[in-house]
Specification:
Layout lengths: L2 E2 L29 H5 L6 H34 L2 H49 L3 H5 L3 H20 L1 H23 L1 H8 L1 H39 L1 H6 L3 H55 L5 H34 L1 H7 L6 H4 L14 E9 L7 E10 L4 E5 L6 H8 L7 E6 L2 E2 L5 H8 E4 L10 H5 L8 E2 H10 L3 H6 L17 H14 L4 E5 L7 H15 L3 E6 L9 E4 L5
Parallel strand pairs: 4-10, 4-11, 7-9, 9-10
Antiparallel strand pairs: 1-8, 2-3, 2-5, 5-6
Helix pairs in contact: 2-3, 2-6, 2-11, 3-5, 5-8, 5-11, 6-7, 6-11, 7-11, 8-10, 8-11, 10-11, 17-19, 19-20
Length: 585
Amino acid sequence: MRRESSPLLVDVVADDDLDDDDPTTSSLDARVTFTQLLSLAKREWDTLLFGTLSLLVRLPFSVSMPHFTSVAIGASIDGDEARFRANVTRFLVVGVVNGVLDFSNVFLFALAQSRVARRLRNRAFAATLRKNMAYFDARTSGKINSTVTNDTSAVSANLSWLLRSCVEAVVRCVGVGAYLLFWVNFELGALALVVIPITSVVNYFYGKLLSANAESVQETLAKSNGVAQETISNIVTVRSFANEPFERRRFGDAIDEWYEQSYRAAQLSGWYYSFMYSLVSACFVPAAILYVGGGFVVDGSMHAEKLVATMLYSAILQEYFGNLLSSFTNLFAARGAAAELFKVLAKNEREDDDADNGATLPIDDVKGAISFSNVSFSYPTRPDIPALSGVSFDVSPGEIIGIVGRSGCGKSTVFALLQRFYTEFSGDITLDGARIETLSPNWLRRHCFALVGQEPVLFNGTILSNIAYARLGAGIDRERAIECAKTALIHDVIEDELGGYDTHVGERGCQLSGGQKQRVAIARALYSSPRVLLLDEPTSALDLEAESIVTAALRKAARGRTTIVISHTPVDSFVDRTLELSPRT
């Protein structure tokens, strides 16, 4: 049999990359800790280590440049041409060496940043796919998408240069501080260093405010993304009702909320940088150094070049101490942005802990006998509203049963419980006598059940890859796909009208008609050779001609397997018997 690769296939994130023993995937407190935040970069310790070593090698050359500048200026004041030329030459040499070493420094830290961002996005997306259905019920797709994209970007951006900034700032601040205190002038060095404790205290409170604000910014951004995604994905409905102005206002309202939070962040940043950098660091401290140092020069107790050195190194000291504090400020901001992200990475609300656990039956022995006995269930997001109440029925192997009833009576809930999308219910559900909760969810979905929904969902790939979607991990069996298409009565249409199995269906199958999409979905359901076929109102959205064709395809697909059909209306012509379901059966 011919097997092919699929354009839908992508690299799968290995379980090892998810770091189940990592603090980020354990149960979380209300706030993200710095340890959890920094743990995101632990896999890149070797790259970060080499980057740090290259930084340490480079820093002496970088730090010495202002020294040669001040000495050259002093030599020019004294009229010492030889000393002036020598220090200009030294300045050029250390500057070139500093520039060459800076490449490896920047490259290694940028590489670590990209790797952290890639791993974080992979982990967030994989962890999202492993959540239970209650998690998706409680969140909009826009919010989930924002967490995987925007929150990961914000966190990785704030973490990206953290280690470099810390190491560089510490080395520069210690080196410059020692140089000023013990080589230039103790009094001037003390003046340059006096701003450090003041800045530290102010930065601490600024960081706490920024952390809370960053969380609000990400929440409002997620809300606006949700509105945009919902509108764009339903653009046909929006346009058919000429409702673009309403959606613009709805999106505008969400963006305004984000703007308000961003405005507060801008205010915080403005006051902080205005006071600490423009006034204290760039004005008051240099003015004090200039006044005191100028007095030393005037009375002849200090050479002018030392005043120049103090001014240059004071500026460097303020800059890199500011960078050091900014690094910790970024940590506060990253912690705020990571609040929802770390909830995604946490083990709570994860289905995968038992997705592959549980019993499996020899697939050839599965006949498809299903029994519901006094089953009651409420959705986790609506615990006080029963979706099913005391439901009981039996389905014999190979039988076709129809479940009818008005909207809200729990028909689709029956399918959700059979596929183990939810596990908290009362009563008994069995498959061939085995309690459903004792069976592996993944085994049930891959081998026992296949769903054809009311609105079939196709992925942006070829017709062939969509039919083989249930087994893409094993490659595509073209012959098997063609057999399923023939059973679904879509093979001739694919070959004669759609251009063959390698034709792309477009986003959400937009290149196919409703009836064509539905029959491709039937073929997809058959590809996994399910023992039980679940049909959720598969013809309700079709016209009479398409409904007739799809119904014929369903009859053919149902042969030899247990089939449960959900419908609003009686389906006596298709099923062996009908069960009428009410909200409190």
